[in-house]
TrEMBL record:
<dbReference type="InterPro" id="IPR004878">
    <property type="entry name" value="Otopetrin"/>
</dbReference>
<feature type="transmembrane region" description="Helical">
    <location>
        <begin position="397"/>
        <end position="419"/>
    </location>
</feature>
<feature type="transmembrane region" description="Helical">
    <location>
        <begin position="273"/>
        <end position="293"/>
    </location>
</feature>
<dbReference type="GO" id="GO:0015252">
    <property type="term" value="F:proton channel activity"/>
</dbReference>
<feature type="transmembrane region" description="Helical">
    <location>
        <begin position="511"/>
        <end position="531"/>
    </location>
</feature>
<keyword id="KW-0407">Ion channel</keyword>
<feature type="transmembrane region" description="Helical">
    <location>
        <begin position="313"/>
        <end position="341"/>
    </location>
</feature>
<keyword id="KW-0813">Transport</keyword>
<feature type="transmembrane region" description="Helical">
    <location>
        <begin position="543"/>
        <end position="562"/>
    </location>
</feature>
<feature type="transmembrane region" description="Helical">
    <location>
        <begin position="177"/>
        <end position="195"/>
    </location>
</feature>
<feature type="transmembrane region" description="Helical">
    <location>
        <begin position="353"/>
        <end position="377"/>
    </location>
</feature>
<dbReference type="Pfam" id="PF03189">
    <property type="entry name" value="Otopetrin"/>
</dbReference>
<keyword id="KW-1003">Cell membrane</keyword>
<keyword id="KW-1133">Transmembrane helix</keyword>
<keyword id="KW-0406">Ion transport</keyword>
<protein>
    <submittedName>
        <fullName>Otopetrin 3</fullName>
    </submittedName>
</protein>
<feature type="transmembrane region" description="Helical">
    <location>
        <begin position="70"/>
        <end position="96"/>
    </location>
</feature>
Length: 577
C-alpha cells in the first residue's frame, strides 16, 4: 500500500493527468449517484478547471447520447410507417400491393437485422471495453424463459408452414418456401443473441448499436402487425376443408388439395395451434430490444452492477393461499383438457363453452376480491413508500398497464356484440359475465401489484440495521465462541419473528401466492390450444371474420404477456411482504 501511495508522485506527467482525470470522473459519478438516490442537488463548492472541463465533456456526452437516441428512434418510426403503409395497402387494395410484396419488404428487413445481430455478437461485443456493465434488472428469468419458449414455438410454426407448402407444391410457387426459411434463420439467431446479450450496457459504437436495435425492433413490430392482420393462411385452410367436404359429397372443386391428407392434417393443426406464439414472440422481442436500447451507453455504479440481495422464494408460512391456488390450478387444467379434447373433433358442443366460461366466472371474482383485500391491507401497512426514481419499476408498471389493454379490448368488443344481439341465452350471459368480471379483475390486480411494487421491501433495510448493530457492538467479536453464540441467538430470533408474522404480512403473502397460481392457470389456458373467443361464433358473426380475427390476434398475445408479467410482479410483492 505505501508503494501504491507513492506511485503517482513518481509517475510521468501524462500518467498523473490520467489518474487525476479518473479521480474527477469518479467524483462526478459519485455526486450524480448520490443526487439520484436522495433526490437532492449536489452540494455546491469551488471547482477547479479540471472539474469544469470534464463536466463539460460529460454534458456533451449526454447530449450526444440524446441525439443518437433521437436519430435511431426516428429510423424505427420511419421503418414502421413504411411497413404499416404496405400492410394497409395489402388489406384495402390487394391488387396493387399483394402479400408477396409485404413478404419481400420483411425479408429485406430481416436480412439487414440478421447481419447487424451477427456483427453485434461477433464484432461489437468483443471490442476492448465494450461491455463494462451489465444491467442486473434487465432480462429476468421469466423473460428469458418466455423468449426461449415462444422462439422455439415460432420456429416449429414456420417448420409446419414449410411442410404445408411442400405438400401443396404442385399448385404453389416454390418462391413461397423462401420466406419461412428466412424467418427460421432470423428467429434462431435473434433468440440466441437476445438470450446472451440482453443485459449488456454497450459502451462502443453506441450510435450504430442504437440504430441496429431500433431496426430489429421495427422488424419485429412489423412481423407482429402482419401476424395480427394477415388471415390468408387461415382462409386457405378453411377453403381446403370446405373443398374436402364437397369432394366427399361428390362435387368437383378447383381448390388446391393436399397430396397426403394425413400429413397435411398434422401440419394444419400444428400451424393453427402455434400461430398465437408468433405474435407473443414478437412482443417479447420488442420489450427486450427496447431495454437494450435504453442501456446503450449507460454507466452503472459499482454497487448497482451486482445482483440485489433478494431473499429466496419459499412457501414457509403460507397455507390457505397455496391450497386455494392449487385448487384453481387443478380445476383449470381439467377444464382445459376437456375442452381441448372436444375441440379436436369437427365441432364443439355448447355445453363445453358453458363449462369453460363458468370456470372463469368462478375464478375471476375470487381473484378480484383477493386483490381488493390486498390493496386495503397495503393501506394499513406501516411500510413507507419507495419514492426513489426506479427506471425498472417504471417500465414494469407501463408494461403491466399496456398489456392489460389486450384482454380488456376483447372484453369490451364482446360486451357490445352480446348486448346488441342475444343477451338472454345462457351461454351469452356467461360470456357477458366473463367479460365484465375480466375488466374488474384487471383493474383490481393492477392496483394491488402497483401498490405493492411501490412499497419498500422489508429485506432492504436489514443490511443497514445489521451493519449498524455490528458497528455499535464491536466488543462481541472477540472470540469464535462469542461469535457462534451471537449467530445462534440471531438465528433463533429470526425464526421466532418469522413464525410469528403479523396478520398483515401473512395475509399479503397468502393473497400473493394465490394470485400467482391463478395467473399461471389463466396464462396456460389461452396460451395453448384452441381459443373459445374465436370459436364460439358470436363475435365472429357480429363483426365479421377478418375484423374479429384482427381483434383476437391483437388482444390474446397481450393477455398472455399480461399474465406472465403479473406473475413476475406478484413474486416481488410476495418477497417484499
Amino acid at each position: 500500500m505505501p508503494a501504491q501511495a507513492s506511485a503517482p508522485a513518481e509517475a510521468p506527467p501524462v500518467a498523473s493527468a490520467a489518474q487525476e482525470t479518473g479521480a474527477v470522473l469518479a467524483k462526478e459519478n459519485r455526486v450524480d449517484v448520490g443526487a439520484e438516490d436522495t433526490g437532492a442537488p449536489a452540494s455546491p463548492g469551488p471547482k477547479s478547471w479540471l472539474v469544469r472541463h470534464f463536466s463539460l465533456l460529460l454534458r456533451r456526452d449526454r447530449q450526444a447520447q440524446k441525439a443518437g437516441q433521437l436519430f435511431s428512434g426516428l429510423l424505427a418510426l420511419n421503418v414502421v410507417f413504411l411497413g404499416g403503409a404496405f400492410v394497409c395497402s395489402m388489406i384495402f387494395n390487394n391488387v396493387a400491393v399483394t402479400l408477396g410484396d409485404v413478404w419481400i419488404l420483411l425479408a429485406v428487413l430481416k436480412a439487414l437485422s440478421l447481419l447487424w445481430l451477427l456483427y453485434y455478437v461477433v464484432g461489437t461485443t468483443r471490442r476492448p471495453h465494450a461491455v463494462l456493465y451489465r444491467d442486473p434488472h434487465a432480462g429476468p428469468v421469466w423473460v428469458r424463459g418466455s423468449l426461449l419458449l415462444f422462439g422455439s414455438c415460432t420456429l416449429f410454426l414456420n417448420v409446419f408452414r414449410v411442410g404445408y407448402d411442400v405438400s401443396h407444391i404442385h399448385c404453389k410457387s416454390q418462391l413461397e418456401l423462401i420466406f419461412p426459411a428466412i424467418e427460421i434463420v432470423f428467429i434462431g439467431v435473434q433468440t440466441w443473441a437476445l438470450w446472451k446479450h440482453c443485459k449488456d450496457c454497450i459502451q462502443v459504437q453506441t450510435n450504430f448499436t442504437r440504430c441496429g436495435l431500433m431496426l430489429t425492433l421495427a422488424t419485429n413490430l412489423l412481423m407482429w402487425v402482419l401476424a395480427v392482420t394477415n388471415d390468408s393462411m387461415h382462409r386457405e385452410i378453411e377453403a381446403e376443408l370446405n373443398a374436402l367436404m364437397e369432394k366427399f359429397s361428390g362435387n368437383d372443386t378447383n381448390t388446391c388439395l393436399c397430396l397426403n391428407a394425413t400429413v397435411c392434417e398434422v401440419f394444419r393443426r400444428g400451424y393453427l395451434m402455434l400461430y398465437p406464439f408468433s405474435t407473443e414472440y414478437c412482443l417479447i422481442c420488442c420489450a427486450v430490444l427496447f431495454v437494450m436500447w435504453k442501456n446503450v451507453g449507460r454507466r452503472l455504479a459499482l454497487h448497482a452492477s451486482a445482483h440485489p440481495s433478494t431473499p429466496p422464494f419459499h412457501l414457509h408460512g403460507t397455507i390457505f393461499g397455496l391450497l386455494l391456488g392449487l385448487l384453481a390450478l387443478v380445476a383449470g387444467v381439467c377444464v382445459f383438457v376437456i375442452f381441448q379434447i372436444e375441440a379436436s373433433g369437427p365441432s364443439i358442443a355448447r355445453q363445453y363453452f358453458t363449462l369453460y366460461y363458468a370456470f372463469y366466472a368462478a375464478v375471476l371474482p375470487t381473484m378480484s376480491l383477493a386483490c381488493l383485500a390486498g390493496t386495503a391491507i397495503h393501506g394499513l401497512e406501516e411500510r413507507e413508500l419507495d419514492t426513489l426514481k426506479n427506471p425498472t419499476r417504471s417500465l414494469d408498471v407501463v408494461l403491466l398497464m399496456g398489456a392489460a389493454l389486450g384482454q380488456m379490448g376483447i372484453a369490451y368488443f364482446s360486451i357490445v356484440a352480446i348486448v346488441a344481439t342475444r343477451p338472454h341465452e345462457l351461454l351469452n350471459r356467461l360470456i357477458l359475465a366473463y367479460s365484465l368480471l375480466l375488466l374488474l379483475q384487471h383493474i383490481a390486480q393492477n392496483l394491488f401489484i402497483i401498490e405493492g411494487l411501490h412499497r419498500r421491501p422489508l429485506w432492504e433495510a436489514a443490511p443497514e440495521g445489521l451493519a449498524e448493530k455490528r458497528e455499535a457492538e464491536p466488543h462481541r467479536r472477540g472470540s469464535l465462541l462469542e461469535l457462534g453464540q451471537g449467530l445462534h441467538r440471531a438465528s433463533r430470533a429470526y425464526i421466532h419473528s418469522y413464525n410469528h408474522l403479523n396478520w398483515k404480512r401473512r395475509a399479503l403473502k397468502e393473497i400473493s401466492l394465490f394470485l400467482i397460481l391463478c395467473n399461471i392457470t389463466l396464462w396456460m389456458m389461452p396460451a395453448f390450444g384452441i381459443h373459445p373467443e374465436f370459436e364460439n361464433g358470436l363475435e365472429k358473426d357480429f363483426y365479421g371474420y377478418r375484423t374479429w380475427f384482427t381483434i383476437v390476434n391483437f388482444g390474446l398475445p397481450l393477455g398472455v404477456f399480461y399474465r406472465m408479467h403479473s406473475v413476475g410482479g406478484l413474486v416481488e410483492v410476495y418477497l417484499g411482504a
